[in-house]
Write a structure and sequence with these properties.
The structure is a homodimer.
Chain A (H helix, E strand, L loop, with lengths): L1 E7 L2 H4 L3 E4 L7 E3 L4 E4 L13 E9 L6 E8 L5 E5 L5 E6 L11 E4 L5 E4 L4 E2 L3 E2 L4 E9 L6 E11 L2
Parallel strand pairs in A: 1-9, 1-14
Antiparallel strand pairs in A: 2-10, 3-4, 5-13, 6-14, 7-10, 7-13, 8-9, 8-11, 8-12
């Protein structure tokens, strides 16, 4: 049994696992004659394998109880998966680096602040969507195509939030 | 000079131009042991031409004044472009079907209700992002790659909202 306290998400800390989507911390340039700032290419979208293509989806997710108890992590070996909150929802992230097995000392837990989204790199182990406090709605950009694209790895993890 | 009153956006009315992203009106199925409903594959992501790939961006856009005055529409011949509001912003949409020229009687104006996003099909003529009332923040999924991917077509259009 692994117990982790979720840390506030930052792009640097999350870099081994993927990208953070947050207009407050990314560079931008003007378009539309200055009316709009474009925060360009914030995430690496990966669609590997046969007949692969990008999907845009919405996930409507029920909130988790705290402390968060997990019995497995999952990965998508053939594609990245981005989650962007549509109602400023905070959510818990539990990740481990790509690989066939998970080393307990490499598992990390983060919590977002409501403005942040994330993009899991293909193969990054991660918890299923774990929104806090209330029903969440997320725009999800991931991969469609042939072949298996979801593996699970058993792991007992409990995640707490700092008080 | 063309004057249009924006109609409430619906998926049926927008079908000639692209997709509407709205979890209230799309089908879904359970994942994550029932915790999450997945509204699957809501938009056709098109990335055409050399070195084409999918981009995830955030656009931060200043609000327009009403009535909205436009002097051109633009199109992206090599890729679709999806806009999803991150703070329930309403926005105005002005579109015309793909083609080398724009027929005035085919131009249409819509207004979203704050929960809706849209995906412009590759080649659909559309106004630049026109958010109402306040600064808007949108997740944008579009195309990177080689070659020109933006054309403009001059057109004088004024758009009003129903009172």
């Amino acid at each position: 049994m692994l117990t982790l306290e979720a840390k506030l998400l930052t792009a640097d800390a999350f870099a081994p696992f993927g990208d953070v989507l947050d207009a407050r911390t990314s560079a931008s340039y003007p378009i539309n004659a200055g009316r709009t700032q474009r925060h360009h290419d914030l995430a690496k979208v990966e669609t590997l394998g046969d007949n692969a293509h990008t999907l845009i989806n919405i996930f409507v997710s029920q909130p988790v109880s705290l402390p968060l108890s997990l019995t497995f992590l999952e990965r998508h070996p053939q594609g990245s998966q981005a989650f962007m909150p549509l109602r400023q929802e905070r959510f818990i992230i539990v990740v481990a680096p790509p690989g066939e097995t998970i080393a307990l000392d490499e598992v990390q837990a983060f919590v977002t602040d409501g403005r942040q989204g994330v993009n899991y790199r293909a193969g990054t182990w991660h918890a299923i969507q774990s929104v806090l406090e209330r029903e969440g709605e997320f725009l999800v950009v991931d991969r469609g195509g042939d072949g298996n694209n979801c593996d699970e790895y058993p792991l007992d993890v409990t995640v707490t939030l700092a008080q």
